[in-house]
Amino acid sequence: MKTTLLGIALLLLGAGAGATAAGVMGYGPLAYISFHIPSASEQQVTIIPTYLNLGNLSAGQKGNYTTNATITLTHSGNYSINLLHSELFDNLFSSFTIIVYIGDNQVVLSPEGLHSAVFYLSNGTYNINIVLYYQVAQQPQGPSNVTNLPFLILHPVGHGHDHDNGVGNQQGNDDNQGDESS
Question: Are 100 and 106 in contact (CB under 8 A)?
């Protein structure tokens, strides 16, 4: 009997020590932290993008949409603006024209016309006005749902991002980015 009582006492003592250890060790992380300190070469631009939500569209429907984005540049230079996914827009819309006003520059982009343009911008903050004119095709071909698809991109010329190979006012290439759901 003494052996049984001693065994139970040791078992309880072990359980108590285990509970104490669990309390000291905690139950899991209480907080996480993430950050990124950009290098000097990464600190060239701050962009506050805009999101265009055209809502539910019908075949043949016409409309326009005006919105603004903001960009702050820390370096003056040549910048390229590109229309992405031109083929998608060409298949879904019979007319799709974007007019971008940035600084003293006006750029007109469309799937069937100019896809990109290059212009000089001085360092500073710009309010970018974007106007979209569209008409849905009578028989649109492509995904019926598109959500947060990037379709305009601005970047410095000559930094390995040029969709038009550094030549201004040429047709650019489509990038496959964003969510195109059928």
Answer: yes
